[in-house]
Design a protein that fits this description.
Helix 3 crosses helix 8 and helix 4 runs parallel beside helix 8. Strands 2-1-3-4-5 form a five-stranded parallel beta sheet, with helices on both faces. The chain is of the alpha/beta class. The chain binds fructose -6-phosphate. Fructose -6-phosphate binds next to helix 4 and helix 11. Homodimer.
């Protein structure tokens, strides 16, 4: 039930801090250490390469998950869109592990890949919100998201739950493999939950940004580098599916190779600047589009902020920034759709779970 909330989407955005705490609890052992069942850690240890397969928002979570697993566990990871993988299968390594990311666990495109993977005799793990779903039943292993039912068509809390579980998977496997982790993930995910709360408490800021930048625009670009690029892809998907504004996410450095031709006087550009090593680079990209008339909205992280920024998110472990930088984008999309009189929870042409290929 959505209770006093006008829309499920807003309720589900607000639930994210609680979901973080539930996930931390669900994956802690009696000593408070993060724990993932031995058969799954064993499958990670044995794999010479991981193939993440997913669609839509879950695919975007996979792009971030690749960074978590490669950085924490030192295992190479490829991320594939399920509908492409089925018909254009890459050369596989000798001991692959397949990870299916699916909120519903019922997505037909991902199921089709799992059928093929099983025929080939490879190990599989499903990360899903729905225990007993098809992808969970058919894979060798399952990790649950513990996000509670997600009703709004636009996925929000499932995305951040997927990121949290992927971070725990990478961290736990890394430890088992003997990779030095260098930080306490339980502690840092707790900080993420608190930062999420702070962001959910400043909704009027994001409503103001939506009104200022997106009330009448035809299009909008999201730019970022490294982790911020992947979050920008998710921000663009959120905005386009519920507000019908043509929105695209780009790697900051890639704009000048073509897309910058689309920048006109007043084109909104939402730029994420949460990564220290690319902070100068993304700010340079913002200057390039501003010189062509763009209307920039920079969302940065505390410690990296500049006077020109429109919003500064609280500081968290740099690896975990996607978990909180996505929240302003979810809320901006929500308010853009609301003020453009769109059906927020049930956008046109879309279904909650896509059970046809
Ligand atoms: C976007 C959205 C979709 C789903 C995609 C995969 O907000 O919800 O892009 O992420 O259809 O669905 P699952 O995760 O259920 O496999």
């Amino acid at each position: 039930e959505k209770g006093t909330y006008p829309h499920y989407m807003l309720k589900e955005i607000d639930e994210q801090p609680l979901v973080m705490r539930k996930i931390i609890q669900a994956y802690q052992d009696e000593n408070g250490e993060l724990h993932i069942d031995q058969p799954i850690v064993g499958a990670m240890k044995e794999a010479d390469r991981i193939y993440i397969v997913a669609c839509g928002t879950s695919y975007h979570a996979g792009l971030v998950g690749k960074q978590f697993i490669e950085k924490s566990a030192n295992i190479p990871v490829e991320v594939h869109v399920a509908s492409e993988f089925s018909y254009n299968m890459p050369l596989l390594s000798e001991k692959p592990l397949f990870i299916f990311i699916s909120q519903s666990g019922e997505t037909a495109d991902s199921r089709a890949v799992l059928v093929k993977v099983k025929e080939l005799g490879h190990q599989s793990l499903t990360i899903t919100n729905v225990a007993g779903s098809t992808l969970s039943r058919e894979a060798d292993h399952t990790l649950l998201l513990h996000a509670g039912p997600e009703i709004a068509v636009a996925s929000t809390k499932a995305y951040t739950a997927q990121l949290a579980v992927l971070s725990i998977l990478g961290h736990t496997a890394g430890k088992a493999i003997g990779v030095q982790q260098g930080f306490d993930l339980v502690h840092d995910l707790g900080i993420v939950a608190t930062a999420m709360e702070a962001l959910c408490d400043t909704k009027e800021e994001f409503e103001a940004i939506a009104k200022e930048y997106l009330a009448t625009t035809r299009n909008c670009f999201f730019i970022g580098r490294s982790m911020d690029y992947f979050v920008g892809l998710e921000g663009a998907l959120k905005l386009k599916e519920i507000s019908y504004i043509q929105a695209e996410g780009f790697a900051g450095g890639e704009l000048k190779h073509g897309t910058i031709a689309l920048i006109e006087e007043g084109t909104p550009i939402i730029a994420l600047a949460t990564q220290e090593e690319v902070n100068l680079g993304i700010r340079g990209n913002v200057k390039e589009v501003v010189a062509r008339g763009a209307n920039p909205c920079i969302v940065s992280m505390k410690g990296l902020e500049d006077e020109e920024d429109r919003f500064v998110i609280p500081e968290v472990n740099p690896l975990l920034t996607p978990l909180i930088s996505v929240i302003p984008l979810q809320l901006i999309s929500y308010y853009a759709a609301l003020h453009r009189d769109c059906d927020v929870d049930k956008p046109r042409n879309l279904a909650k779970s896509v059970t046809v290929e």
